[in-house]
Design a protein that fits this description.
The protein has eleven helices and ten strands. The protein has 337 residues and is α/β, with parallel strands linked by helices. It has a single domain, classed as 3-Layer(aba) Sandwich (Rossmann fold), CATH 3.40.50. The strands form three sheets. It has a six-stranded parallel beta sheet with strand order 7-6-8-9-5-10, with helices on both faces. It has a two-stranded antiparallel sheet with strand order 1-2. It has a two-stranded parallel sheet with strand order 3-4. Helix 1 links the parallel strand 3 and strand 4. Helix 2 packs antiparallel against helix 3 and helix 4 packs parallel to helix 5. It is globular, with a radius of gyration of 20 Å.
Length: 337
């Protein structure tokens, strides 16, 4: 596993959502002082549900030209093979993340599961993109939006959870997601988008610890080599952990967005609920976006809505929540070093 810095170059045949770097007008369009901006509606990068969500802030809806393959559901199901393995990540966190990803796999395959709550708004693929009627098996459910609600708890800290402790717990969750996804899909790129640099550093530190332990895990696996383990060892994808601004213009198959806060840091809500920042982070995903958030952000005090920018950002965040399959994870702050 290694970190990389992706360039901002794009290929001509990939159509992106209108760039959030333009000035936003009151009616939701993006305009430039230099020339008129024409919104592209055909999108070949985003899956239908992700494209439909991102287009909620634009005047014209996207016409998605991509269908999420069944392979993703089968890929995430491989997480089950890693249950019980020590990755130098808090076991309770690792287990909860693994169950979360397995729940996503089951939901995609339309299998019964009790881990995730289905979205209130059920965005399915457009009829033209659904598998051919000649295919006898049921078409997979295209899921590109997932929400993981983080709660940090402590029996010792009567004064509440500090921001620093919360960030370290959040980083453990991110590291568990990265390790699980990368072992299932070693050829795919993963982005971790953080609003703050302190979050970026916390994730990198957690990953460095897990990464140092990984050779031992893989050495034990090689004692019983099979084709699956050989495939896992051929790593091609990269993991990029950086701030949202530095990821703008890049893309990855999997994107993990860290937008959670403890109650003690509610003063930072205005910064997190900046719609443009949320849009840039979420729309980097080509296959699956996992948003890690918390009740402080998802259910902010009414006073937050006095700021027009925060109100718009919250509406955008709520639109994500309404379309995402959601799960919960509790982190014991007393076990965080």
């Amino acid at each position: 596993m290694h970190f990389s810095r992706h360039s901002n170059q794009t290929t001509d045949h990939v159509l992106r959502p209108p760039s959030p770097s333009f000035t936003e007008s009151s009616d939701g369009d993006f305009s430039s002082s230099q020339s008129t901006v024409v919104q592209l509606t055909e999108n070949f990068r985003l899956n239908p549900d992700l494209g439909e969500f991102v287009s909620t802030i634009y005047s014209r809806a996207f016409k998605p030209q991509k269908l999420q393959p069944r392979k993703l559901a089968n890929t995430l199901a491989k997480v089950e093979d890693d249950i019980g393995i020590d990755f130098a990540i808090q076991p309770q966190i690792m287990k909860a993340v693994q169950q979360f990803l397995l729940g996503l796999s089951s939901a995609m395959l339309r299998k019964p599961q009790t881990i995730l709550k289905p979205p209130p708004i059920n965005s399915l693929a457009a009829p033209s993109l659904v598998d051919s009627p000649s295919v006898t098996e049921i078409a997979p459910h295209p899921i590109s939006l997932a929400l993981l609600q983080l709660e940090t708890l402590s029996a010792r800290r009567t004064e509440g959870i500090s921001y620093e402790i919360h960030v370290r717990g959040e980083a453990q969750v991110a590291a568990a997601l990265i390790m699980s996804i990368q072992r299932c899909a070693p050829s795919d790129d993963i982005f971790v988008a953080t609003p703050h640099r302190v979050q970026r550093q916390a994730v990198r530190t957690a990953l460095a610890t897990a990464n140092a332990y990984l050779p031992l895990v893989e050495a034990m696996e090689r004692l019983g080599i099979n084709s699956e383990n050989e495939e896992r060892s051929g790593r091609k994808g990269t993991v990029t952990v950086d701030t949202v601004e530095r990821l703008q213009g890049s893309e990855a198959a999997f994107v993990i967005c860290l937008f959670s806060l403890p109650e003690s840091a509610s003063s930072d809500l205005k910064f997190l609920l900046e719609r443009r920042r949320l849009n840039v982070a979420i729309s980097r995903a080509k296959t699956l976006c996992i948003l890690v958030s918390s009740s402080t952000v998802l259910r902010p005090p009414v006073s937050v809505f006095a700021d027009d920018g925060s109100a718009k950002g919250y509406a955008f965040l709520r639109a994500f929540e309404d379309r995402a399959w959601s799960g919960k994870i509790k982190v014991n702050a007393d076990l965080i070093n």
